[in-house]
Amino acid sequence: MISLPIEGMTCASCVGTVERALRAVPGVDEVSVNIATEKASISAHAPIDRDVLVKAVEDVGYSVGAAP
Ligand code: 9UX
């Protein structure tokens, strides 16, 4: 499970946009974005480069915070 801090989400629709973007990354199985904690939880069946996930989030207009 990969956890990423997502920045810039302000409504439930943002959550859907980020979830959809991350689900489209090859290797990703499940994505759950929590607007309250501003975290994305990602499960994958293959190793995924963090940079690819960051790019997917940025491409839809949000950003990923520094790894906690
Ligand atoms: Mo909601 Mo999010 O109206 O970028 S979709 S703020």
UniProtKB/TrEMBL annotation:
Where in the cell does this protein reside?
Answer: Cell membrane
Q: State the source organism's domain of life.
A: Bacteria
Q: Where is the HMA domain?
A: 1-65
To which protein family does this belong? Belongs to the cation transport ATPase (P-type) (TC 3.A.3) family. Type IB subfamily.
What is the name listed in the Swiss-Prot or TrEMBL entry for this protein? P-type Cu(+) transporter
Stretch of the intact protein here: 1 to 68 of 815
